[in-house]
Amino acid sequence: MKKPSVGIIGAGPGGLACGMILAHKGFDVTVFEKEKEVGGRNAPIKLKGYTFDTGPTFLMMKFVLDNIFKMTGRKSSDYLKVKRLEPMYKLCFNDFEFNPTTDKKKMAKEMNRVFPGNAEGLKRFYVKEKKRYEMLAPCLEIDYSSFGKFFTPRFISALPYLYTGNSIFDNLGNYFKEDDLRLCFTFQSKYLGMSAWECPGAFTMIPYVEHAFGIYHVMGGLNQISKKMADVIKEDGGKVQLKKKVKRVIVEDGVAKGVVLSNGSKKYFDYVVVNADFAHAMTELFAPGELSKYSKKNLEKKKYSCSTFMLYLGVDKVYKSLPHHSIYFAKDYKTNVKEIFDTKKLSKDISFYVQNPSISDKSLAPKGKSTIYILVPVPNQKSKINWKKQKKKYRELVIKALEKRTPMKDIRKHIEVEKVITPDEWEKDYSVFYGATFNLAHNLTQMLYFRPHNRFEEVENMYIVGGGTHPGSGLPTIYESGRISAELILKNAR
Q: CB count, 10 Å around CB of 291?
């Protein structure tokens, strides 16, 4: 009997998770990746002996990844070496620093040091947000291919925890008095590419998830996850083809039949899985007029996340006083956020994230040297900012901020190699629609059933994985999108 076949466009985390499960279940899996390495935005950047993760650097909800491996009869620990980070990160404001940890006693002590009188609020946060997570997590594990999914007893009982009627910043006011303390639990909204003052209150469960389950580093970088996932696909008989760009999805009578590669060759499959940036895929992989709901005109009306200005530095020094993860808040953080999301202009007073992984993992740089990763949230390409003109000036602004606010006062003279990625380059070189690195925004009208479906609603036998579909952006949810789509295909193939 012929194996059912599936063609997967893109070897990003979602496509690889889907491919792992289907290959293990006996499908004839072929993954097409246009680059020379797997991973997409989870791929490595290698510069003269230095290795950087392109995008994600936080591994949260490790149990989601563990489950993907378990579904293929494997243990992630046989493929990946991970290290739990404690404290999780350092949060740096203009006049104080805060070091959140998963150890509740140490966390209460740290909170009393910086924000006296909030220990009771912390206890309430743990209790109430644990309940929210327990109610909502099962709702994120199912697909929303039909509106009827809203009427299951599970979803109805979770509604009060989903629709809070306020933002994550407002919701945290139920626990904490000081605005700065709330910000220590709201910067996570950047994972969703949204302002803490607009991000739905339901996402208060994200900082809870960090505190409950911890944050991990993968030795060799998070890019190793995608590499090992591709290995699993090949171990189970699947194929991962690099430097194979898909030009178009073959659609006949509303049914996906296969793909056309950039060299003109056609490959036919029973199912097609799209693991490319959602809006980019809809505008580039289909013939004009083939889609209606997700036409370019309609996609332009959607709400998108912010973008990021990225600076990857290989330096000939180890900064031992700089933690693995640090987040630096602008002095006027609310104005900074407003400029990113509303007025869409470049802030002079910036917030930024710094990863210094070499203090945890010596494999990423030559001996005695370090990889330094800097991410600055900036407006997406709807801003019309001319990055060709702004690139050098903004890079200088970031370097000055590093010199002024971090322990890297002498960073400039220690840089050996560097790479910059601007929103313009995210859009043109990485095929990210509007350069919106966190994909479609996660407002209530773009979540669950109202987000593009895992079983694509406009074309039969086509499925979507990645940050642009349910459950959303961020590595754990992207892995879940791969699992959900794989299970839908398995159900359809029975």
A: 19
Alpha carbons 329 and 348: distance in angstroms, whole number: 13
Q: Residues 417, 346: one domain?
A: yes
Which residue, chain included where needed, has tokens 């194979």?
244
Distance between start and end Cα atoms, the chain: 14
Supply φ then ψ for residue 109, to 5 degrees. Answer: -65, -45
* Residue 289 confidence (pLDDT) above 70: yes
Question: Residue 320 sits in a domain of what CATH number?
Answer: 3.30.519
Give the residue among 51, 90, 190, 187 at the shortest CA–CA distance from 405. 90
Percent of the chain with pLDDT over 70: 99
In a domain, 286, yes or no: yes
Segment 87-100 shows an average pLDDT of 96
Average pLDDT for residues 240-269, to the nearest whole number? 97
Q: Are residues 468 and 361 in the same domain?
A: no
> Is the sign of the CA dihedral 473, 221, 349, 429 positive or negative?
negative
Helix 153-162 vs helix 119-140: angle between axes, to the nearest 10 degrees?
Answer: 140
Which residue's structure tokens are 């912010």? 306
Decide which of 446 and 421 is more confident. Answer: 421
Strands (E), 191-285: 216-218, 239-242, 246-252, 255-261, 266-268, 271-274
Q: What are phi and psi of 439, to 5 degrees?
A: 70, -155
| Domain assignment of residue 409, given as a range | 306-428
